[in-house]
Amino acid sequence: MSVVSIVHEAGTAVFTPGHGAQTKQLLYQELERETRLVFDEIHTRVLPDAPDEIRRGCHLQGNEFNITLKPNFETGTGKAEAVINQGLVYLLELLADTVSSDPMAGDWTMAHYAELDSVLANQDASPSCSVDDIPEPVETQLNRIDVAYYHADAAEVGSLKLNKVAGVEAALEVLDIEDPFSVIMGDSKTDLRVMRWAEEHGCGIGAAPTHASQAVVEYVEQADTCAQSAS
């Protein structure tokens, strides 16, 4: 029986060879029906409805659940940055259309993802309202959905409930590992969540390559400093 488990699609699925019915776990099938319908709608529209510059300049990464736009240009270049910035706004607009038919849905959605404000401002897409203006039903739906931006690399819509932590926990469960110790090497906020999970549960340490995002590098350096101080 395999002792290897692969967490893929940022935690929405887990593949563990040789474990019968648990070999392939599609964790996204356990999400609320309303959330799955949002993703179904965006998947249907994301390329056919895209503006020409996005359709020509991006491709859809082969995800089974998450919706990830990748540039048709070298990652990190000015062209990649421009098309991913446009793609982020486009994904937010699609998301807004799926969660509400109200004319204010776009502004509500842009306001909800305030951490993306610098990109939205660059694209003249800053909201005209605040988070406090978002109706509760719309806020409830948006609270289930993660929108990620990777500079000049990708724009993605995913589930907040299903992240790499959920995938790692599912993998450990099917492998029947009760007291794990993990080394988490990562470069983005999705990896940072796993590092923080490992720290919280005392079951691992984090590491980062030199190209990792600033937040990840700072976290790993701080954790290393604390460990040296403790020793």
TrEMBL record:
Top-rank taxon: Archaea
Protein name: Haloacid dehalogenase type 3
Taxonomic classification: Archaea, Methanobacteriati, Methanobacteriota, Stenosarchaea group, Halobacteria
